[in-house]
Amino acid sequence: MTDTITTRLAAAGVTLPVAAAPAANYVPFVLYGSLLQTSGQLPIDGGKVAVTGKLGGGVALEDGQAAARFCAINILAQASAALGGDLTRIVRLLKLTVFVASSPDFTEQHKVANGASDFLVDILGDAGRHSRSAVGVPALPMDAAVEIEALFEIR
Fold this sequence. Notes:
Strand content: 25-35%
CATH architecture: 2-Layer Sandwich
Strand order of the largest sheet: 1-2-7-5-6
Number of domains: 1
Radius of gyration: 15 Å
Oligomer: single chain
Largest sheet: 5 strands, mixed
Distance between the termini: 13 Å
């Protein structure tokens, strides 16, 4: 599966970054039996937050979707770090929890989340099909537009 994941990442023009270190008092992931839980990942690209602000308050839906995709890339980077680089250990992505910085009248958080969901299904195939929550919040760390955490089943 790593060849498949690696091939799919390359076809998407994506090289996984080095997994980000925690920015506060937490760990970037937790392995527990056959589960891998990542901490929330921001839309970091090139060492900085790629999309800031609020959806419905100046950030376009397409930019929110791009932010969600960056978050998904960083989720895979954390999974790779947790699994010693062996993404073949991923059995299934079980759930994404997507936090979208939103103005009070913005109601398309689910469409923002598709930026991550579509990417992860493209890269992981059927193992990337997952349950999901998409929640609007008033603010996120570093003014990020999106933050996403993931729960995987691993072998």
